[in-house]
Amino acid sequence: MAPGRAFIVVRRSLDARRGAPIGYRYRVALESSPVAHVHPGLHPGARGRSVLVVGAGPAGLFAAYRLAHAGARVTLVEQGKPVQPRRHDLASLTQRGELSPSSNYCFGEGGAGTFSDGKLYTRVKDRAAVAFVLGTLVRMGGPPEIAFEARAHVGSNRLPKILTALREHLVAEGVSYRFEAALEDLVVERGVVRGGLVRTGDGLEEMRADAVLLATGHSARPVYEMLHKRAVALEPKPLAVGVRAEHPQPLIDELQYGKHGRPRHPRLPAALYELTCDLGEKRGAYSFCMCPGGWIVPCATEPGGLVTNGMSLARRDSPHANAALVVSVDARDYGEGPLAALAFQRKLERAAFAAGGGGFVAAATRVDDFLAGRGSSEVARSSYLPGVVAGDVAAALPGRVVEGLRIAILRWDKVLRGFGSREGQLVGVETRTSAPVRVVRDRHTLASPSHPGLYPVGEGAGFAGGIVSAAIDGLRASESLLQTPR
Ligand SMILES: Cc1cc2nc3c(=O)[nH]c(=O)nc-3n(C[C@H](O)[C@H](O)[C@H](O)COP(=O)(O)OP(=O)(O)OC[C@H]3O[C@@H](n4cnc5c(N)ncnc54)[C@H](O)[C@@H]3O)c2cc1C
User: Fold this and answer.
1) Does the pLDDT value for residue 23 go beyond 90?
2) Which range of residues forms the domain containing residue 288?
3) Is the CB of 333 within 6 Å of ligand 1?
4) Which residue minimizes the CA distance to atom 10 of ligand 1?
5) Is the Cβ–Cβ distance between 427 and 243 less than 8 Å?
6) Atom of ligand 1 nearest to the CA of 460
7) Is the residue at 39 inside a domain?
8) What is the pLDDT of residue 469?
């Protein structure tokens, strides 16, 4: 490099492959970034246009961002609460087992991503869009390194501040936020969607708009049921279900870093794993949403149904590593019909709630007991705050899923010796790995072909999975909406 020339880090990734020295790989650029940043501005398609955005998760927020900057009139309705009061409802759930169906780990400002692991990497190939989303989060107060870390991670303690700054920015751009406002029905005129019926503290309100951008996430079951009743084009979507595995983080550190993980070198992050296993007959098992140094959290949205997921703080310093271990399921497991997969999820969640004995306490099984086909009579301490009880996690899952998990864990134990040992335990169930329904949309306009004026976006529509990809889908759908004549 020429002396005196500045460079910037474009990407940094940890290289901990076995047999080679552990270190970081850097990709740098001289003086300016090669990644084009999109600066969306005014758009002629926004002139005089009003849009009702439903859902304040990443998809809805980034859609509102684009539409407001383009010059459209945007109302953003969210059934949950702003991020700070939402915390109280999480505490009621984890400490007293009391669930608020509209304000919980899935619902509220920031959506399912707010109290999450905060991983910000994605398989989306559009690098400019990824850079725009990450750059926006940095401008809203996120740590600058998320823009270049290969495995960018923000941590759920930082997200509330970022979301508050984003809200202040959007309000200044003219977005009207309505919290504790749940869409119950669509306003349809001559076959075109022209707004929604929204339940607020004052009753049912008709909110009219030129278009509705539906960004309600993968857990908005009443929305799916309403769309089905309205004959909006829907199709079932394959998904994956299973359990959440929890191991001591020092075990995972040692398995991944060898001598540098025993104890972990202070410059190394808590180690993670990503595992896959082909089970044949078009089925696979895989680990999902691994949270090093994290907590297992209760992600239920319905009373009497238990769902697990994982989160972590920026420091990733809990003594536990957790990840979903899931097996793909399809119509062979849940039958036919647009809402069949949703009914299947619900059935497993109810069985898991019963297996834990109520109050969102979860059944847990030591991995070696699970492999031996029995429940456990004692389990280790868990990060899952409503608490775990020794039992048989397999009892809440279909036989094919249990069998698939056993085969996969035995194979993974050959790669990560100890993964299948008694040190690990399984907590269940994990059912919300992705949307159970796809809300069909036109390939070009991204609008519903059955209901023009309706733009299904994000994870709930079945077109994204993860914080960044949902945000990008929100941007894409808004761009398409702006280009479609009214
Ligand atoms: C615990 C947990 C950890 C996760 N960790 C990660 C991670 O580390 N990295 C990652 O990339 N992804 C993670 N995810 C997944 C990620 O959060 C989602 O993919 C992403 O949030 C989807 O964005 P979305 O905007 O499509 O929907 P959501 O984030 O689900 O937002 C939908 C919003 O719509 C609202 N809504 C629903 N129905 C209505 C209605 N009728 N009226 C008004 N509002 C309504 C909901 O209240 C919600 O706020 C995690 C998810 C969970 C639950």
Assistant:
1) no
2) 238-430
3) no
4) 466
5) yes
6) 26
7) no
8) 97
- CB distance 344 to ligand 1 below 6 Å: no
Beta-strand relationship, 50-54 and 211-214: parallel
Which among 409, 430, 451 is the end of a domain? 430
Q: Is 55 touching ligand 1 by the criterion CB < 6 Å? A: yes
Give the distance (Å) from ligand 1 centre to CA of residue 138: 20
Are 169 and 299 contained in the same domain? no
Cα(467) to centroid(ligand 1), Å: 8
Q: What is the atom index within ligand 1 of the atom nearest the CA of 310?
A: 1
| Domain identity same for 182 and 160 | yes
* Chain mean pLDDT for the chain: 94
pLDDT exceeds 70 at position 38? no
Residues 22 and 79 both lie in one domain:
no
Tell the residue number behind the tokens 């246009």, with chain if given: 49
Same domain assignment for residues 310 and 366: yes
Are 20 and 53 found together in one domain? no
Backbone conformation region of residue 285, classed left if phi is above 0, alpha if psi is from -120 to 50, else beta: beta
CA-closest residue to ligand 1 atom 3:
116
- The finding on whether 217 has its CB within 6 A of some atom of ligand 1 is yes
The model's pTM is 0.95
Domains identified in the chain, total number: 3
